[in-house]
Amino acid sequence: MKFEIEEFIHFDTEDASLVNQKTGDRLELSLTSTRLLAKLLCHRKDVLSRDEIFQSVFDQFGARSSNSNLNQYISILRRNLAELGMVKETITTVPRVGFRISEDVMVKMTDNAKKPVTLPESHKKKPYKYFSLFRIFFPLSIILFISCLFIANSLESKLKSVSLKKTAMDKCTIFSSTSFSTSEIEEALSTNSRHSRKLDCSIPKEIYIERLQMNSTLGTNKHYLFVECLLSSNKCVSYYFREKENA
After folding, report:
1. CB-hemisphere CA count at 13 Å for 174?
2. Greater pLDDT, 101 or 244
3. d(Cα 110, Cα 3) in Å, to the nearest integer?
4. Average pLDDT in the 54-73 region?
5. Which of 2, 106, 150, 199 could staple 110 via S-S, CB 3.0–4.6 A?
6. DSSP secondary-structure letter at 96?
């Protein structure tokens, strides 16, 4: 597309240039500046909102859209036009709305028909890049998914292989990998100085106990893990302590 601004500035979207036809002075515009100026000139009788400019000038071409970015490009275009001898303010700001071409600025499109702004081939989006990325990451995601399924099945098999012992104490149901008597459970809780407590089975609970015993020259070390779950609230509390003997 080609435009005549005030009959002496020539704007060509094909080569992204602004030329003063009287002096021959020429300025090269960036692709974003070219799209922005062409958008404003094609809709010179309308006020373009910021959102409309964001979508058609920035977002559609993968450029970052923001108010500060747009204000900067508007400022650059105004400066470029002024450098080529434009005295009038070509681009007017409409507060809280957007921008438009000033009503007293004469604009003429020199092409017979309106054509869309064209970009050099090097700047056009290449969809095959995204397809190539898809071809790389899709097999990897399948492999990862299969690996996760394998790990989950392995863990499930291991859990099924563990036979838990079940003990009842008042309203508590106690599960453990080894058998514990009621006295052993109460003794373990009460003799531990740091976590000394009494097991309360007046309300329905599920308790999971795991014990690891280690014998060494310094004595016997017993490690306990208790997980206490209230059935009424589906909340669990865990606590861990270590008990030493003959040390």
Report:
1. 20
2. 101
3. 6
4. 93
5. 2
6. T
- From the list 51, 149, 166, the residue with the least C-alpha distance to 99 is 51
Decide if 94 contacts 49 (C-beta within 8 A): no
- The pTM of the full predicted model, rounded to 2 decimals, is 0.46
How confident is residue 163, by pLDDT bands cut at 50, 70 and 90?
low
- CA–chain centroid gap for 92, Å, is 36
Are 205 and 173 within 8 A, CB to CB? Answer: yes
- 245 beta partners: 220
* CA distances to 45, 71, 146, 156 from 91, in Å: 12, 11, 58, 68
Contacts of residue 166, defined as CB under 8 A and 6 or more positions apart, other chains included, come to 173, 174, 175
Q: How far apart are CA 129 and CA 7, in angstroms?
A: 44
Beta strands in the chain (DSSP E): 2-5, 9-12, 17-20, 26-28, 48-49, 91-94, 98-101, 107-109, 165-169, 172-176, 205-216, 219-230, 235-245
